């Protein structure tokens, strides 16, 4: 029997939404706008959520209520249009006596297990974590989409696909759907290169590698492409700084005998990022990476204090570093 209280949390927001939809669909015989209600926790009071859950729809004895972005189960400080009466929600969860399926979607990697509301939710309902997939899981997921659509794709094409998209669930789903519409019976490497966009994360990996390889003209061209795509120079800088930091940390920990899985846990980053960093980090010395981080710090200061526009500063930085 399906638990009437459900909480789904994690960073994989698209999969959380899909899972909530699946739960509601399995509970309701014929979902419609009256039996399936979606509320935004930032805009809807606790009282309104409870009232909605306790009110049966017209001509039906089944109802599912999905509450988006229920941040009160986390430690995050979030601006909300309403002040939530958490004690009222705790009381409702403790004594829930209606048959409505109530699903809380929490877009956060961690719950705050010290909070009473989280403890009650775990006691009275079902809590499900939806983590980001690893590379092998993404490959299996993509294979299942291909099988459902009766489309073939060889390993080399999938390798290129993942090299362009990374392994973010939403990104790979959207890009694979585009590919399936574009291709006929078999997806080739040429199809991937023609259709699939390179993710920002993968572009940052490439841009950092070009900088470290001293391929300055290529680095500047890629930088200009990203800015034309409306990426903010300040954000790009911070992403590059973060990538240099990751390379430095991975190289240091590898030299101390750490394995990739342990490095990912220690640094609290996705194992796929560590895999990519480990692949390239042997090409650069610890000293080189330290010097690049110092230069990143200096350009960060210039960004905040110089009269020059940031795009010009960024290009000068890429040429100097």
From TrEMBL:
It comes from the Bacteria. Residues 7-129 form the DNA polymerase III delta N-terminal domain. The keyword tRNA-binding does not apply. Pfam families: DNA_pol3_delta, DNA_pol3_delta_C. Residues 201-320 form the DNA polymerase III delta subunit-like C-terminal domain. It is an enzyme of class 2 (transferase). InterPro entries: DNA_pol3_clamp-load_cplx_C (IPR008921), DNA_pol3_delta-like_C (IPR048466), DNA_pol3_delta_N (IPR010372), DNA_polIII_delta (IPR005790), P-loop_NTPase (IPR027417). Coiled coil: none annotated. SUPFAM superfamilies: P-loop containing nucleoside triphosphate hydrolases (SSF52540), post-AAA+ oligomerization domain-like (SSF48019). Its EC number is 2.7.7.7. Belongs to the DNA polymerase HolA subunit family. This is DNA polymerase III subunit delta. It comes from Salinicoccus halodurans. The lineage of its organism: Bacteria, Bacillati, Bacillota, Bacilli, Bacillales.
